[in-house]
Sequence to fold (358 residues):
Amino acid sequence: DLKPIWNIADRGYQEEQLLVDELGISSIAATLLVQRGYSDPRDAEKFLNPEIEHLRQPADLPDCEAAVRRILLAKECNERIYVHGDYDVDGVSSAALLTRFLRLIGCDVVAHVPHRESEGFGIHDKAVQWAKESGAGLFLTCDCGTSANDQIDAVYEQGMEAVITDHHQPPPILPKAHAIVNPHRKDVISPCTELSGAGVVFKLCAAIATELGMPVDKYYRAFFDLAVLGTVADVMPLIDDNRVIARHGLIELRRTKKPGLQALLEVSDLSDPTRLLTTRHIGFQLGPRINAVGRIDDAGIALKMLLANELDEARTHARFLNEKNQERRTLQDQVAERVFAEIMQRDLSNQYVIVVAQ
Fold:
């Protein structure tokens, strides 16, 4: 007998009419924009038509300058950099973006994403040891590390230095790293709090490109395709910088030259160049294939795919991801069948909230 209770937002008729007059949009669109806080025509125009020049400056990120200096020092000294990501789409795409860009500018890079079963979430002690054994001098994280106090201490005990890039909520005490590029830091106010791990890396690399005198617009267009994967798959709100990344990322993903992304589009039945890509395609076709291999096998295969320079190699990895995604769907269906059977067996179907655990 429950009836819905509607809370109707107050109308801002003057603000709505201003948007209609200034932007030439419909009254319904104007109403929705005002209700979402876009009553200023300039803000509404940026929301409707996000452009590259709307991106915030990378310097808005905490410790961005210190991170840039340390990474460029590694480049100048030919010091090996160990890039450590995570096993989900955001962690894999940010590791791929960071590795590809650093190699492009001449850095010596070894890339790693953890195995879900043998390492778990974040940085495992074994990864620190592997970094040392690889000859790395700089331990560089993406989409992880903010809460890894003990592991970062171990990095320094092994004679390396650490730079953290992340977007997760920080603990009360931060790790003792050379730089922590995380917009959620409580000791530094940043306007970039909605960025994904890939978004943080995307902007950090833009700062490096600027420092090296590279055309930053060209850099953005070269790496939008990887940045949009992590941004959308990690379910970031598509506002501010994320909206720019989403709009231009989908455009660049459609015409990407990266073999790994081309192969991923192929196995996802999205290779038709005339077909418009949307965020839904990332959320329900591209992203799940990367996530699946991280959940039931080794996310390192997905990273190898995104780092591949030859299409044949990339296709081999992409087919493996596709098989694992099908396996994941089969397992999910089996679990659902068991759950539904238990609900019926225990006569829980009329309950408002049902929790079944196995």
User: Anything to note?
Assistant: The radius of gyration is 22 Å. DSSP finds 14 helices and five strands in the chain.
